[in-house]
Each structure stands twice: as structure tokens, then as C-alpha cells.
Amino acid sequence: MHAFSRRSLLSFTALAPLALAAPAVAATGTVIGGARLARDGVQTAVPAGLPKKLTARAWLVADHDTGEVLASYRAHSRLAPASTLKMLFADTLLDKFERTERYTVTDADLADIPAGSSLVGLKPGLTYTVEQLWQGVFLRSGNDAVHILALMNGGVARTVAEMQARAADLQALDTHVVSCDGYDHTGQLSSAYDLTLFARHGLRDADFRAYCATRAADFPAGGRRTFRIENTDRLLSGTYGVTPYRGMIGVKNGYTTHAGNTFTGAATRAGRTLLVTVLHPKSGNNAVYEETAALLDWGFGRGSSATPVGQLVDPLSEGGATASPSGKAPHAGSKAAATGDGSGWASLGTAGALTLLAAGAYTWRRNRRDTGRPEGARGTARETTTNPHPEDDSTPTHEPDPAQK
């Protein structure tokens, strides 16, 4: 059903010319979102009240509705995104299949999923609806569910190329996609700025918003049996000692050995929605949630009167402009925003190569749907069995802490 395997995709990426190692630069030579976002250090007009114990390697606070960036730290630094990259996957594929469409999983379908991946627990021989597969993606960060949806889309290579094309349209130039699921691969990178773009654009879709806000659902286990899956976003579910954040509506958390903990969250209070992305806090299983909550508190408090230091740009296909409101400056790939870990090699050139792979196959089909919460997320009473992944979607030998990949 799919023309390219995961292995063929990685081979294609490995053959990219060395010239593609140049830093990503917007066609206009300007910093996407504003020149201040490429600077090192905390960027904000209202430093008073900002959390004092932030350990993340990068973070960003923005207003969802206006797109104004209220504060940031190394917004364009390229870092491993882990499963937060699934926001881009969903934004790329969500409108391609009807929720009632069904797919029967085979052994061959699951053969290329990397060992240690987070799984929702798909079983060969069982038939799943698209709605259930998306629940597996959003609630359990299941790489098996991602893989099946990619196969339904024509294969992993095609889906990766379409994700890269979508990132380019969203002006997420720090992002280099190697896999659909966010699993660690050399050169798979994004930034706090780009991940916030993905969340903002995704939340415009009613299904995206409903799935990421779903706290729990019953998932097929074969026959009439189901097992309970819970959302691994701890600020939403309130698990593992984390207090649920008032007004939380999603969006996506992630964890890999290389990336550490990553998270983009959205919350609404008094009619105002804020987005916060936190990448790679230094320590603590819950640090990514604690720092996100602290930044949200600041944004809803003193940050509400802050003069913006940048802007979340609109997609090019929706009239987005690339001009920097603060003047021209090197893009985030410059030394000023380098991560110091050798990860800054990913380039717009590689994105262009993958986009060419998608030429003729990628179609912009963002149909706004005003449907409510997916039916399977309503938690109707069903026969249940024990959840085979009770803590999260981690594998003990690879993930000693229960945070998702």
C-alpha cells in the first residue's frame, strides 16, 4: 500500500547534498516572527514576574488569537522535538480521512516501527476507525497509530514530505522532519517558535482541538472488549503529581532519551487563550509541566499588558507575510541562536528536497469543520480490560520515567 519504507526514507535523507548544511534563511533574509526572536537571552517587555527558576533550553509564550509573542527564550533554537512533532503530523493529515473510515491492521504494517516506541497497542487482525487511530495519536502518542495513518496516506516517505511541505507553508523554517512520529533521528529538529506555530494552526481545526482536549477514551482490545487510554498531557489529566491547570485545552507533550521532555500547551481564561512551548528542562519528570504552568500564570497575569516582542506568522497559503517587524537580521540558524550541540545543520535546503518529493502529491485541503468532540471521546460505558500501557506510552528499558516519546 505504501511505496516507500521507513528505511528507504532514511536512505533518501542520508543522500542529501552536503551543501544543504547551510543555515535556514527566509527568502527575504529576515527573521520569521521578528528580529528579537533570534537573539539569545530572555526577550520580553515586561520581565517583572517572570518565573525565576526556568531551566528549559528554549521557551515561548504567545497569544493564540493575535499571534503576539509576549516573551521568549531562544525561540528559534533548533532542538529535538520528540512527540510534539505529532502536532505537525495531525495538522497535515487530519482532514484527509473521514472519522468513520476503517482500517484492518496487519503484521507487515507494524514491522517498521522502531523498538522502544510509544504505542497505543494496535493489534494485527483488528479493524480500527480513523477516529480511534487519532485518539491513539493524541492521547497515547502511539507511534503505531501514526504509522497506520501514514500508510493510509500513501506511505511514510510521502507523509514526511507532506509534513515538510506543510511546515514550509506555515513558515516553520527551523523544522526538519525525518519521521512522522517524532522518534529520535539524526537531524530531526524543530524550535519553540515552530512548535507554537503548529499548535496555533492546528487548534483552528475543531477535530484537532477536540482530540487534544480529550482526557480519556475506551480503545478496542478485540471482540467486544476495550481498554481505557488516558491523555499523557499531565496538565490536562492531572496525573503523576501534577495539578490540572485551570482552563487547559491541550496540546501535546513528548519525551525521548535525546530530546528530554518537550511540551506545547494551550489554556483559556476569561476568554483569552495563551500558548506556551517549553523544551528540554534540565531535570525532573514534571519540570516541563511546572515551567509551562508558571509561564501561563505570568501570561495571564503581568504578561497580559506586555508589548509583544515578536509575532506568530500566518501560513503563506493564507496570506502570511515574511517581513520582520523589527528589521532584517540573520535567521535563527545563525550563531546567535545556535544550540551548541551540533544540531543546527538542518536546513531549508533539505526541506526543499523533501518538498520536491511531495510535488504533485500534496494538496492544500484545510476544510474547517465545526463538528464537536469525536464520538469515541465521550466515554460511554463499555466492557473494559486492563490497559496494557497503564502509566504512559513508554517502554521501561528505554524510558525509566513515564513520559511519552
Task: Please tell me about this protein's structure.
The longest helix is centred in the middle third of the chain and has 14 residues, at about 155-170. α5 (about 155-170) packs across α10 (about 350-360). The strands form three sheets. Strands 1, 2, 3, 8, 9, 10 and 11 form a seven-stranded antiparallel sheet that branches. Strands 6-7-12 form a three-stranded mixed sheet. A two-stranded antiparallel ribbon has the order 4-5. With about 400 residues, the chain is of the alpha+beta class. The protein has helices at about 5-15, 85-95, 130-140, 145-150, 155-170, 190-200, 205-215, 235, 285-300, 350-360, and strands at about 40-45, 60-65, 70-75, 100-105, 125-130, 215-220, 225-230, 250-255, 260-270, 270-280, 310, 385.
Provide the fold topology.
Layout: H1 6-14, E1 42-44, E2 58-63, E3 68-73, H2 86-93, E4 102-104, E5 127-129, H3 130-140, H4 143-152, H5 156-169, H6 192-202, H7 206-213, E6 216-222, E7 225-230, H8 234-237, E8 248-256, E9 260-269, E10 272-279, H9 287-300, E11 310-311, H10 348-358, E12 384-385
Parallel strand pairs: 7-12
Antiparallel strand pairs: 1-3, 2-3, 2-10, 3-11, 4-5, 6-7, 8-9, 9-10
Produce a short descriptive summary.
The chain is an alpha+beta fold and 405 residues long.
